[in-house]
Design goal:
The protein has 11 helices and 15 strands. By secondary structure, it is α/β, with parallel strands linked by helices.
Length: about 300
């Protein structure tokens, strides 16, 4: 059995002539947070719908928890909690009642209701009707509805979308504790890298239906060019020497900004700058937005 809780091979879905998901091979490690990134229309929701067997795939296969989704649909889905494109709930009922309905329908133990309300921090509001909840609270109720099934895997489509900064932080903390304390694998989609950058262990990037990157966040960060910010006693002359030696250098305010690469590494920059007495030097790695630009040629919000 593989260590991947989700594994797809050549997963493909077309709508008419348009290939919305184009032969993607997802590898989602167990016990981690996997961030599935892509611009509007990239194919995130279509992929997630196939993972949840809400729509059929045209080609390819899905293995979840070591089983074939086609063959063991029921067994697999019983162990997945999901939230796709917003929660559904009875607005005129309180959170507690909403969860009770799910427990009744699905024959789940009602003792868990208070526990999951506590986890998503809705316990103090459990008797208030849901229609008065904030967007973030409704989103947390959606997650509670997924958690009540005691899932091994949570699949969340844009759980952060539309939340204010405090709401985003709440959901982030919740993801981290669900993963680290309860051992739940989380697969979440987003179209804004910075929203999941701080919590995801593994990143998959989908663009026009194709998976263009899949690896750890560290590997993604490695793709970022390191930059040096340098101040010397003679900036004009240092600039001239560096650029005539082929360095990617710009004068930015008081500092020279040099992008390092294979040809122009830190040692070489030091060597070239020796005659100019360096007063100050600092290093910075590019943001993941810069990496996006390098990977996809589009702006940070994919
Ligand atoms: N039911 C459908 N019928 C026709 N086309 C569809 C259908 N569902 C999705 N598509 C198309 O498939 C492509 C991928 O859509 P999808 O909803 O998966 O993107 P997404 O990454 O979730 O985007 P968003 O960030 O806007 O939610 C889009 O071009 C979309 O128009
Ligand atoms: Mg979507």
């Amino acid at each position: 059995m593989s260590n991947y809780i989700i594994e797809t091979n050549g997963l493909t879905r077309r709508f008419g002539q348009h290939v919305s998901v184009d032969h993607i091979d997802l590898r989602v490690p167990e016990g981690k947070i996997y961030g599935f990134l892509g611009a509007n229309g990239a194919g995130k929701t279509t992929t997630i719908r196939m993972l949840l067997s809400l729509i059929r795939a045209d080609e390819g296969s899905v293995q979840i928890m070591g089983r074939s989704l086609e063959k063991d649909r029921e067994k697999i889905l019983r162990n997945i909690g999901s939230l796709v494109e917003g929660p559904s709930y009875y607005g005129h009922l309180p959170a507690y009642k909403n969860l009770k309905i799910i427990c009744k329908l699905m024959d789940l133990p009602e003792e868990d209701i208070d526990k999951v309300l506590d986890i998503v921090r809705l316990a103090p509001y459990k008797k208030q009707t849901v229609k008065g909840y904030s967007l973030g609270m409704k989103q947390r109720l959606g997650i509670a509805q997924a958690l009540i099934r005691r899932p091994k895997l949570l699949i969340l489509d844009e759980p952060i979308n539309g939340l204010d900064p405090a709401g985003i932080q709440e959901i982030r903390n919740l993801m981290l504790s669900l993963c680290h304390e309860q051992g739940i694998t989380i697969f979440l989609s987003s179209h804004i890298l910075s929203e999941i950058q701080s919590i995801a262990d593994e990143i998959g990037i989908i663009q026009n239906g194709k998976l263009i990157f899949q690896d750890s966040i560290q590997e993604l960060e490695k793709k970022s060019p390191t930059k040096l910010f340098v101040r010397t006693e003679n900036q004009q002359e240092a600039f001239r020497v560096l650029s005539s030696s082929g360095a990617d250098v710009v004068l930015q305010g008081e500092e020279l900004l040099i992008s390092l690469n294979g040809q122009m590494d830190q040692a070489k920059v030091f060597h070239l700058l020796q005659p100019f007495s360096v007063q100050h030097m600092r290093e910075s790695t590019a943001s993941l937005e810069d990496i996006f630009l390098a990977l996809t040629g589009t702006e940070g919000s994919l």
